[in-house]
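S., here's the first fold you wanted:
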Amino acid sequence: MKAKLYYLLEQRAADCRYFVIPLWRGSGYTTMFAQVQMPHILFTGLEDYKARGTQSAPYFTVSYYNEFAESKDLVLIRGDVVFTSKISDTEAKWLLETTQSFYLKDVRYKLVERFNKETHDFEFKDVLQALDMPIL
């Protein structure tokens, strides 16, 4: 990723460390919980997080390496699926791209801010609509 985008992600993540993303499966979706602690993002199922809190094991982890940010304008990204029984490589890739889009696109970032700062006003259906997913 370009260094400028990484720095924007890092800045926004410092303010808004959590978000929820629906992961479409078959005729419905599983809600994933993202914990953004730069230079890492941890993804786990929302139900697992509700049950175990910070003790819940991540399904998928992402690490950013910014050693080339200054010299090459490049930040490397590594994703590791921890539980292949919980999430596929394809789903993990989509989850990372989608989460980054919520943090990097201004219109979508408003939902991340609302989730973290104005929780009582947050509506999950707005996330579904932003992703063109049906409201079940």
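And the second, which I think is the more interesting of the pair:
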Amino acid sequence: MALLISVFRLLVSILAFPIYLLNFIGLWSGICKRCFPCFMKYFTAIYNEKMLSKKQELFSNLQAFAAPSGKLSLLELGCGTGANFQFYPPGSKVTCLDPNPNFEKYLITSIAKNRHLQFERFVVAAGEDMHQVADGSMDVVVCTLVLCSVQNQQQILQEVRRVLRPGEAFYFMEHIAAEPSTWTHFWQQVLDPVWNLVFDGCKLTRESWKSLEQANFSKLKL
């Protein structure tokens, strides 16, 4: 099986040679950072439609973590185009964080469409170092389709715990490595190197549940 994966990886790499060449001469990263937000604008619209019921279920009890005033202070990591805004309770005070500044213009459009929210600020930073966000300042932290592309999952999860108030919640929705010995797992192994390059660091083979289990949250629902 390992040999077969290597052969298919080689074939995919040949097809993706122009991208590898651009990456080798140092041009691909800039192109990807500019084009990826545009792709995500269309992808997240399709994804939200397909995952509507799942997201509604995931975010159904957000308001339970609001402060006594009824206001919910929410931090979204890897906010992208603001695809989750429609699921947040009215009056939520939303802080957005993303390492790619090119998402900002799409984020502004989403903010304009979601007047039920109180937008606080857009922080350009990686989740591994959120020093701009104070300790214990958030009721809820959200990340969807983010842990697949970060440099250090454990560091991000420790930062999440730092910025959350005691007893508050972290909401996540991630794609992960498929079960071994399945065709899905086979193609994840084949496509992962090129996928990682094309989709701005996204990895198909992450076993993110392991990092979540090791993060020492008081309660974990997977």
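Why I say that: Strands lie at 73-77, 93-98, 118-124, 138-144, 164-173. The two ends are 30 Å apart (CA to CA).

Talk tomorrow,
H.
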